[in-house]
């Protein structure tokens, strides 16, 4: 079962500088998120639920850089994309706002602009929209979130040729069913490729130098010069 984490109500009682007394309808406003930790760095979705949105007001919901302490002093300025704009007002919905009665499926990712939320503190910032929000901080809330470390993909296998113990080994990947022709100096070997990680081994040449070359379907896929 996923436990929802309630947002820290930053501004229910403690306001940003310049804000006035909290309106009565704002004191009932609260936010929560279904996930706040271990988010996928490359891209994820957090469902944010808004409760008690004033009927005539809209809010912005965005992922932003900042700590709880920093956001309590000033609104964050580095945020990911446009975020979401939601409202209960039918008029604002006609202008593109989403329905604030529904959970907000907020797209997030760890890296944006110069921010890396796997290193920098980040969170979901909620504030009143452009219709009065520039001077009204009563709906400002902040939910700290964390991301997991970026997934590092293993390098894709690739063709290779190497010399060891007097032999040249060619490794051909993802060509099962095709025919490979290899040359080591003047020696030619032709093999049917029977696996997607196929190895052909040929004795090394005794010449002062020589080329080791492999062709699959008439296309050169490997070439390397060796010196003795």
Looking at this protein, list some descriptive labels.
228 residues; mainly beta; Immunoglobulin-like; five-stranded mixed sheet; four-stranded antiparallel sheet
Unreliable segments (pLDDT under 50, ≥5 consecutive)? 1-25
In CATH, the architecture of the largest domain is Sandwich
**What general form does the structure show?**
rod-shaped
Give me the CATH fold name of the largest domain.
Immunoglobulin-like
Biggest sheet character: 5 strands, mixed
Ends apart, CA distance between termini:
65 Å
Order of helices and strands: EEEEHEHEEEEEEEEEEEEE
Mean pLDDT over all positions: 87
SS-based class? mainly beta
The number of strands is 18
> Roughly how much helix do the residues carry, as a percent range?
under 10%
Task: Report what the structure shows.
With 228 residues, this protein is mainly β. The strands form five sheets. The chain has a five-stranded mixed β-sheet with strand order 6-5-4-10-11. The termini are far apart. It is built from two helices and 18 strands. It has two domains: 5-145, Immunoglobulin-like (Sandwich); 160-227, Immunoglobulin-like (Sandwich), CATH 2.60.40. A hairpin with a 2-residue loop joins strand 8 and strand 9.
């Amino acid at each position: 079962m996923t436990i929802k984490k309630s947002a820290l109500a930053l501004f229910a009682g403690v306001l940003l500088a310049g804000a006035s007394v909290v309106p009565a309808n704002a004191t009932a406003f609260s936010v929560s998120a279904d996930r706040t930790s271990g988010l996928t760095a490359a891209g994820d979705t957090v469902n944010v639920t808004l409760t008690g949105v004033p009927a005539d007001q809209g809010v912005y919901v965005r992922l932003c850089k900042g700590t709880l302490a920093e956001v309590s002093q000033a609104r964050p300025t580095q945020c990911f994309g446009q975020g979401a704009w939601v409202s209960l007002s039918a008029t604002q919905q006609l202008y593109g706002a989403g329905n604030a009665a529904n959970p907000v499926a907020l797209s997030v990712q760890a890296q944006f602009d110069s921010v890396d939320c796997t290193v920098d503190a980040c969170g979901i910032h909620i504030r009143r929209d452009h219709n009065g929000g520039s001077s009204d901080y009563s709906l400002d809330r902040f939910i700290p979130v964390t991301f997991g470390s970026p997934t590092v993909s293993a390098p894709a296998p690739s063709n290779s040729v190497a010399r060891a113990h007097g032999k040249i080994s060619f490794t051909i990947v993802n060509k099962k069913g095709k025919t490979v022709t290899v040359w080591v100096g003047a020696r030619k070997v032709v093999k049917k490729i029977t696996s997607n990680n196929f190895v052909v081994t040929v004795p090394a040449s005794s010449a002062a130098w020589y080329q080791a070359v492999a062709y699959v379907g008439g296309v050169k896929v490997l070439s390397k010069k060796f010196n003795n």
